[in-house]
């Protein structure tokens, strides 16, 4: 197997985590909307926690993309 082909396969496998990130972000915001719809008074507490969860999930996506680029261009 050529090195370029192996790099492309490795970068593609590293990007599989991005599907999980998309699902995770969707779950976070669907839970936020559901909880605020049930109890609008708790918006302040729930919104802060959802932003923390969003930041952590997005960081995982950025790390996966960084690894894919490192595999591809080194």
Report on this structure:
By secondary structure, the protein is mainly α. It has one domain: F1FO ATP Synthase. The protein is 88% helix and 0% strand. 1% of the residues are buried. The mean pLDDT is 92.
Please outline what is shown here.
This protein is mostly helical and 74 residues long. The chain is 88% helix and 0% strand.
Shape: elongated
Strand-residue proportion: under 5%
Radius of gyration: 17 Å
Helix content: over 70%
Order of helices and strands: HHH
Q: What would CATH call the architecture?
A: Up-down Bundle
Compute the number of structural domains: 1
Secondary structure tally: strands? 0
Number of helices: 3
Report mean pLDDT, rounded to a whole number: 92
List keywords for this structure.
74 residues, mainly alpha, F1FO ATP Synthase, 0% strand
Set down the secondary structure blueprint.
Layout: H1 3-14, H2 17-38, H3 43-73
GO molecular function: lipid binding; proton-transporting ATP synthase activity, rotational mechanism
Family: Belongs to the ATPase C chain family.
Membrane topology: Multi-pass membrane protein
